[in-house]
Amino acid sequence: MLKIMSVSKKFKSGDSFVNAVDNISLEVADGTFAAIVGKSGSGKTTLLSLLGALDRPTSGQILVDDRDICRLGDRKLIDYRRNKIGFVFQGYNLVPNLTAIENVMLPMEFAGLKKTERKKRAARLLKEVGITEEKFNRKPTRLSGGEQQRVAIARALSNKPSLILADEPTGNLDSATGKVIVKLLENLAKTENTTIVAVTHDESISKDAKQTFRLRDGKLVSTSS
Length: 225
Ligand SMILES: Nc1ncnc2c1ncn2[C@@H]1O[C@H](COP(=O)(O)OP(=O)(O)OP(=O)(O)O)[C@@H](O)[C@H]1O
Ligand SMILES: [Mg+2]
Description:
The chain is of the alpha/beta class and 225 residues long. It has 7 helices and 10 strands.
């Protein structure tokens, strides 16, 4: 379970401060696909980076499985990011000189899994996200945008994270492909019992989400489910 309590993030901007995230509290149950929506500059990415412990809040608590991640020391934080979180970004961020399957295997290498196990799990995940075997050994440039995003999602799943954070996961895709990726995320939340929090401009994504949180000027203005 993900529980955010009175979380704020202020950034210094010249002589003043920006309340990028302003006293937000929310809860997302395990295995839920949740969307964060809001206009540009409303604080979506900032909130996501706090959840992923890429940044620390100015105040408030973020509980992931009852542990306040804001209180973790640096070493524990690295552990948390590596083992509990899967990130999916808009630009896919695949390693260009690695093949699809090598990209998915990479995080498992940091986790110390044996190569045969890494390969087996990577192949299973790639199939699960709809990448067929003949594409396993292709480098990212020889895959379509949608395929690259599928590989990125498989990679995010590789260390069995309890939370997947996706920032505009369909931002670079045409709307049909975007819909397929959203369905995929929605199904993975169920089959892998992973909580997925996706930031989006795209209203059609939030329709598929079980919960939608709407931000405006850093504040949570509505929650719908
Ligand atoms: N590192 C930073 N330093 C200073 N201000 C920042 C920083 N990061 C974000 N901000 C400001 O915080 C506010 C929220 O930014 P954020 O990136 O979270 O918005 P967003 O909702 O993700 O927007 P977009 O849809 O354009 O990606 C904006 O006013 C932005 O300028
Ligand atoms: Mg953003």
